[in-house]
């Protein structure tokens, strides 16, 4: 568990930092974010009417944390313009993010910009992530303030970065849980939710998967099953990643497939919201029949009914998701 502590430079951004810390801690548990009103004043020799060299701020923050937060990674938030026309600088000892270019944005948008910038910072604590010098809408873009809008709209790693991260998981540089925690921060920024469908890998289930997927089309959800995700890694890693990341699991127990029950058990162990579906109620073991379960038929009417039930579920109270 990595501890990340926010520090405020100047008299702005306090509310945004407090709200951001609460949001970040609510969506994941691999990183613990904190802010205890640690506020550093700008020294008199720094002229805020002109851009400030980031090295001066790094020294300022370094002196402040030298006897504090030895077990935490400090992230300082300032509101001044950097001389280098950037909005973040970071290394293995500390990071500084400037909100200067987001001064006219809403408090929530400022939080999203800070969180998006944090993705690059956090990932580089574990791996030497490749920087894109041309904007492609990836958190690893070396982008201008205008180009960040493309990244905020997409809020996902490009395929090249996904591959690098997954290879780093295999070599032990970063854990799958940490990778998923970073993904959940991206989901927080975008307002996106995930549903993962557990079902046998067989073409006879394609129609039912398409039916389920269509139920999510009108909302900001992503609905996947393992064979829909084209990543150069082991299928089992994809399954664990998707279960960890998902807000909802739909599991088709038709035929009592052993792999389906194994993956469902993992989802239950994580406390995931689950919906069980089946073509025959006899395929549901007795000790699972108290859970949410939908019996469907392989007909146009049956698919339509299932889609309607899922849509009603999505429109229910947020705390069930």
CATH fold node name of the largest domain: Rossmann fold
Number of helices: 10
**The CATH superfamily title of the largest domain:** Toll/interleukin-1 receptor homology (TIR) domain
Provide the succession of SSEs. Answer: EHEEHEEEHHHHEHEHEHEEH
Q: For the CA atoms, what is the radius of gyration?
A: 23 Å
Helix content: 25-40%
Largest sheet: 6 strands, mixed
What do the pLDDT scores average to?
89
Shape: elongated
CA distance, first residue to last residue: 25 Å
Class computed from helices, strands and strand pairing: alpha/beta
Low-confidence region ranges:
none
**Could you name the CATH class of the largest domain?**
Alpha Beta
User: What is the architecture of the largest domain at the second tier of CATH?
Assistant: 3-Layer(aba) Sandwich
Q: Proportion of β residues?
A: 15-25%
User: How many strand elements?
Assistant: 11
Q: What does this protein look like?
A:
- The chain has 10 helices and 11 strands.
- By secondary structure, the protein is of the alpha/beta class.
- Helix 7 links the parallel strand 7 (193-198) and strand 8 (221-224).
- The radius of gyration is 23 Å and the shape is elongated.
- It has 2 domains: 2-128, Collagenase (Catalytic Domain); 192-320, Toll/interleukin-1 receptor homology (TIR) domain (Rossmann fold), CATH 3.40.50.10140.
- 39% of the residues lie in helices and 16% in strands.
- The longest helix has 17 residues, at 107-123.
- The strands form 2 sheets. Strands 1, 2, 3, 4, 5 and 6 form a 6-stranded mixed sheet that branches.
